[in-house]
Amino acid sequence: MRISCSPGFPGSMIGSIEIQPSKFNTGVSHNSEITHHVDPDLVGIPYIEDPEFGSTFDAMKMMKGTFQEEFHVSYDVEFTIDVDNKGYITQFEHTFALERYLDLVRTQSYKVIKTNWKGRSFHVMTYSYMEEVCNPDNVIFKCNHAEDVFVVVELVPYSVGGVVVQPNNVYLHLRALISARDDLYPIDYMCEPDFDLSIEA
After folding, report:
1. Structural domains counted in the chain
2. CA triple 28-92-103, angle to 5 deg
3. DSSP 3-state assignment of 91?
4. In degrees rounded to 5, what are phi and psi of residue 190?
């Protein structure tokens, strides 16, 4: 899974996660600087089997509409979150503090977890620290009415530098993807550690 971090506007870094394989990116990036900052032995995306992990999501609110239907209704986004023509999420971008990016890699917080939820088997892809993924205040959106892929998100007031500046504008922070569609989100791709770091513009 390609997870990029590169310079954005002055003083900030932009992160991008390609949740589905892209025909434009073939193979792992060979120009990444990640091993200059993180022990190569820690650069990985673990695969875990935990049948009980799915029960974590039972405490979270399931939003009424789909991810797209709720856009500009219950949340907004910083940059872009791309979906395909059926509503399945393919990529998202957000501001990404460099130290957070490095620490998420260093702590192997990006994981793929095989679990059970709603009486069926799912794979969960985590994009945050586990305590953020499992926060019961998170909410869940279905990608479409097939209800075979969901996103776990935290909705937070818009802030700048940690200070809330627009308390009535709620922004989405993606914490995890819950998928029963291994054809759209192949496990081999999800577990491939493609951390594409570029610090200099």
Report:
1. 1
2. 65
3. strand
4. -60, -35
Structure tokens at 170: 């709620």
Q: What is the pLDDT of residue 166?
A: 66
First to last CA, the chain: 23
Dig out the tokens for 90 from the structure: 């393919």
Give phi and psi for 69, each to the nearest 5. Answer: -65, -30
Query: H/E element holding 3?
Result: strand 2-7
pTM of the model: 0.91
H-type helices in the chain, by residue range?
98-106, 130-133, 187-190
pLDDT by residue (tens digit) across 44-69? 999 999 999 999 999 999 999 999 99
Angle, CA 100 vertex, CA 99 and CA 103 arms, to 5°: 85
In angstroms, the CA 94 to CA 122 distance is 26
Tell me which residue range forms the domain holding 193.
2-197
Query: Distance between CA 179 and CA 35 in Å, rounded?
Result: 30
pLDDT range class, residue 201, cuts 50, 70, 90: low
Q: Which two tokens stand for residue 174?
A: 């993606």
Tokens representing 34 are 């990640």
Question: What is the average pLDDT value for the chain, to the nearest integer?
Answer: 90
Q: Cα 41 from chain centroid?
A: 22
Which amino acid, 52? E
The string of pLDDT tens digits covering residues 157-193 is 876 666 666 667 788 999 999 999 999 999 999 999 9
